[in-house]
Amino acid sequence: MKIAFIGLGNMGGGMAANLVKAGHEVRAFDLSEPALAAAREAGCTTFTTAKEACAEAEAVVSMLPNGQIVKQVYWDDVIGHAPEGAILLDCSTIDVATAREVIEVTEAHGYQMVDAPVSGGIAAANGGTLTFMVGGTKAAFARAQPILAAMGKAVIHAGDAGNGQAAKICNNMLLAIHMIGTCEAFAMAEKLGLDAQTFYDISSVSSGQNWSMTSYCPVPGVGPTTPADNDYQGGFAAGLMLKDLRLAMEAAKAAGAKVELGDHARSIYEAFAKNNAGLDFSGIIRTL
Ligand code: NAD
């Protein structure tokens, strides 16, 4: 299949390469020359404009920094340039309202579109093991599914347009809350004279058990190997967690949802990211 891919950054670069490996003809575009060079190396055909990349494409995948850029790319470069009837997949993490607006407008122009944000970081993008949460009609999902399956280990239909983004920000809000809670528990255990490994051995088989503890332990040397064992380098940057929490708070306000802990987590990550935006989000334990 001829697939245009727009946004070949940390995530998009690996995802485009996996589409090539799956046998697709990938028509790649990014504003950055090094990103284009890496895409050529991975077997993509590169173009000097997004419009050219979209021409002739049966599908368009985008992986861009934010909602404003997504809107600009779809308005200026995709609508009227990708052939009518093409399936459009935006995998960026953006606000729910913009995701719904872009799908509504592109579908009014004769396209089918899904929002398909991802769970999993750069390693999962490179390894083709992302989880996609997908919003859109059943028909659009059916067309998007095999394309996404070439880049991930799980592709889940979350419901109508925008529901992929809704699932993503609700999930990441919960992740932020249980990571902070897990860090507080380890820090308090230490202050009470309890060894971190002993606390892990008890809590990981008790009711405090959660993903932040047993899959992503914030304490070095305890549990599986995590960014904590690499001085909190790599993993999921605190700055990206803050981005997702801000999107979650925006959505909560629009929907009238009460999210006191989510908002508290946002303020904690806001303070942390001021000087540690590039550090893994589990590094929050250093502030305790
Ligand atoms: P990135 O900044 O590395 O990549 C974004 C790319 O988009 C850059 O190469 C940039 O040059 C390009 N770009 C910007 N404007 C453009 C335009 N108008 N036309 C074409 N290209 C343009 O970011 P990333 O880490 O790859 O993240 C991409 C998206 O994935 C974000 O929405 C992010 O929130 C989400 N995400 C990231 C991670 C992660 O661990 N990095 C995990 C999950 C989700």
From TrEMBL:
It comes from the Bacteria. This is 3-hydroxyisobutyrate dehydrogenase. Residues 162-287 form the 3-hydroxyisobutyrate dehydrogenase-like NAD-binding domain. SUPFAM superfamilies: 6-phosphogluconate dehydrogenase C-terminal domain-like, NAD(P)-binding Rossmann-fold domains. The active site is at residue 168. The keyword Cell cycle does not apply. It comes from Erythrobacter sanguineus. Its EC number is 1.1.1.31. The keyword Membrane does not apply. Residues 2-159 form the 6-phosphogluconate dehydrogenase NADP-binding domain. It catalyses: 3-hydroxy-2-methylpropanoate + NAD(+) = 2-methyl-3-oxopropanoate + NADH + H(+). One of its GO terms (molecular function) is 3-hydroxyisobutyrate dehydrogenase activity. Keywords: Branched-chain amino acid catabolism, NAD, Oxidoreductase. It holds the Pfam family NAD_binding_2. GO terms for biological process: L-valine catabolic process.
